[in-house]
Amino acid sequence: AAFPDLLLFSGLEISVEEGFDIVVLAEEQELRFPAFPLRVTFEELQERLEPVAGETFLFMAHPFRWTDRLSPAMEHILSHVHGIEMNSINILQGRAWKAGVRYLPRNAHLYEEARERFGLIPLFNSDSHSERTVGALANRIEAPRKPRTGSELAALFKGSHPEEHQNEPLLDARF
Fold first, then answer.
1. Residues 42, 80: contact at Cβ < 8 Å?
2. Rounded distance, CA 34 to CA 37, Å?
3. What distances in angstroms separate CA 142 from CA 44, 80, 165, one per listed residue?
């Protein structure tokens, strides 16, 4: 109530059996359990989302957080999602460097190479597990109007090229 202009949307991060985290943005009713078990293969995830595929946005979260190579399983998934998380608190944790005023992952070139190779939409997320870092990173998107539903949000991401917003004081305090 204190922030009437703030919009909140549901999303679901699913750890697929291939060892990666996929974030699904869709209508809230499409994301409820038990529709999604805790662990599925990426193929099962695609099958479950098929009826609403046009109204969902999928991105791979922090793919190079623990690795510096593009595996065949990662290539397969990246060829079927819409976006890739390029930067977040969890990507930077233990692997950050500061380039001017921006914090980047040490392996930022891998994220950029994957984004270009697979034609993915870049995403920049707080992925915050602490109140202290909420809003440290965010996506800046130009839109004619605010989305009202999960499917409108998915469509906005599909049709955009987000710019990275970094809150330097929050990041400086963290790193």
1. yes
2. 6
3. 33, 25, 13
Q: Is the pLDDT of residue 33 over 80?
A: no
d(CA 82, CA 130): 27
What per-residue string of b and e applies to 44-66 under the rule 16 or more CB within 10 Å gives b? ebbebbeebeebbbbbbbbbbbe
The secondary structure element, H or E, covering residue 174 is helix 168-174
Cα separations in angstroms, 64 against 32, 85, 161 = 28, 10, 21
Torsion over CA: 101, 103, 108, 112 (sign): negative
pLDDT tens per residue, range 52-91: 899 999 999 999 999 999 999 999 999 999 999 999 999 9
Query: DSSP letter string over 34-98?
Result: TSS-SEE-HHHHHHHHGGGGGG-EEEEESTTSS-SS--HHHHHHHTTSSEEEEEEHHHHTTTEEE
pTM (two decimals): 0.92
- In this structure, the number of other CB atoms found within 10 A of the CB of residue 35 comes to 11
**In this structure, which amino acid lies at residue 117?**
R
